[in-house]
Specification:
Blueprint lengths: L1 H25 L2 H18 L4 H15 L3 H24 L1 H11 L4 H14 L3 H16 L4 H24 L4 H27 L8 H4 L2 H34 L2 H37 L3 H37 L3 H8 L3 H22 L3 H26 L1 H26 L7
Helix pairs in contact: 1-2, 1-8, 1-12, 2-6, 2-11, 2-12, 3-4, 3-7, 3-11, 3-12, 4-7, 6-9, 7-9, 8-9, 11-12, 11-16, 12-13, 12-14, 12-15, 13-14, 13-15, 15-17, 16-17
């Protein structure tokens, strides 16, 4: 189950790297910074709706483990309903969102104007993006890791081809990259729906819209997802703070940190492949009341996570500069990134358990524990950042980020027996 999820997830940072590589070779640090800020804006938006995938996956996996297919269908309908309503609101509120982003992020006018140009185009992909969150979460909960992989591969191939065609072929620059993303997102949604009907089309007649929107069940759905929403807010606070602070230190530091965060993102999405497998298996075994398989799946996840962490650390140590050179041919930016490259070697070791435990807790629908852990880790990040930045500058920012990852993984490990294992009685 993990391998298709890894392939699915690895396409996401690779897509970002391709976008970054396109603008990195057709422009300077301003274009690189604009992509970073544009991506940050959408992280700010879409991470708020992470519950559409996370909550859907956990609820669906437990319904699948209990053999309750009707409930799994109700979960999908609820998630798609929320996705559609949310997407319409995002498109309607695009002007206020852009204004708020411009107010919060302090950057040069050239970089910000390019970032907003990217934003105003890509925002039209919101219905497809949020719809894919819901469908992907449902597939994972149904123990079907292959369909999200197929969708991700096609989506990203379309994105790369369209971005190159528009940005380079038609010389549209950053607008071409944004258009390529919009086209690809809708292509992915169409394929996901087609695959659903191919495998699950016979279940369509069993969907009862009235039962899907029962208040008590919707209340439970929103209660769990409310905790996940708070988790997302904390993640946003950290991951938008980093580029925002980087921008305040100048375009060169922003560009350097953007390149280094791409290495972190690449690693994180590989880990998330195992985390998604954890969601599926942990939810399934809790639903089936199978404690032995539950414990075994957790042990396997942690072992594989440790092995992959070692591989990534070694690869980054020997080939770090080569990887950065794939993202940009600006030697000044690469040299600036290499000044802080040591943190890219430490991040995988500090963060791998946090990603895996996220998947375990999602499968267990241990939303309150996830919420409490992320709040504590976020507080640790900001409490560490301000004194560290005063004396260490950009190094202080990276140290605070490492502490954030260590707190997440450590606290979830300490609380795992209570939050996850004890859900299945001996």
């Amino acid at each position: 189950m993990a391998l298709p999820n890894i392939i699915t997830n690895i396409t996401v940072p690779l897509l970002g790297m391709v976008d970054l590589a396109i603008v990195g070779h057709i422009g300077d640090e301003c274009l690189i910074g604009a992509i970073a800020l544009g991506t940050m804006i959408f992280n700010l938006i879409y991470w708020n709706f992470g519950f559409l995938r996370i909550g859907t996956s956990g609820f669906t996996a437990q319904a699948y483990g209990a053999g309750n297919i009707a409930e799994s269908l109700r979960v999908l309908v609820r998630a798609l309903f929320i996705a559609l309503v949310s997407a319409v609101l995002l498109i309607a509120l695009q002007q206020p969102i852009a204004l708020l982003s411009k107010t919060i992020v302090k950057s040069g006018d050239d970089v910000m104007n390019l970032a907003l140009k990217y934003f105003y185009i890509r925002i039209w992909a919101a219905p497809a993006t949020l719809g894919l969150y819901a469908i992907k979460g449902w597939f994972i909960g149904m123990q079907n890791a292959k369909y999200p992989m197929f969708v991700a591969i096609v989506l990203n191939v379309v994105n790369v081809l369209c971005s190159l065609a528009f940005a380079v072929g038609l010389k549209m620059g950053i607008a071409g990259v944004a258009i390529g993303t919009v086209v690809a997102q809708y292509s992915g949604l169409v394929m996901a729906v087609a695959l659903w009907f191919k495998k699950y089309g016979t279940l369509y007649a069993e969907i009862n819209l009235k039962s899907c929107l029962v208040f008590s069940e919707m209340k439970r759905f929103f209660s769990v997802n409310g905790d996940i929403f708070i988790r997302s807010i904390c993640m946003i606070a950290v991951f938008t703070f980093i580029p925002a602070v980087s921008a305040s230190m100048g375009n060169m530091v922003l560009a350097a940190n953007t390149l280094l965060m791409q290495l972190f993102t690449l690693f994180s999405y590989v880990m998330d492949g195992f985390a998604y497998a954890g969601e599926s298996l942990v939810g399934r075994f809790i639903g089936a009341k199978d404690k032995y398989s539950l414990k075994l799946s957790i042990k396997c996840l942690l072992r594989w996570g440790g092995l992959l962490t070692l591989i990534f650390t070694v690869a980054y140590f020997f080939f770090g500069r080569d990887i950065l050179s794939l993202l940009t041919n600006d030697n000044n930016v690469i040299d600036a990134a290499m000044e802080f490259f040591v943190w890219s070697l430490v991040v995988p070791v500090a963060g791998f358990s946090a990603f895996l435990f996220d998947g375990i807790y999602v499968g267990a629908i241990a939303s309150k524990s996830m919420r409490n852990v992320i709040v504590a880790a976020t507080a640790a990040f900001f409490l560490a950042y301000f004194p560290l930045y005063r004396f260490l500058g950009n190094d202080g920012l990276w140290i605070a980020f490492l502490l954030f990852l260590v707190f997440r993984g450590g606290l979830m490990w300490l609380n795992m027996n209570k939050a996850v294992i004890k859900q299945v009685k001996d």
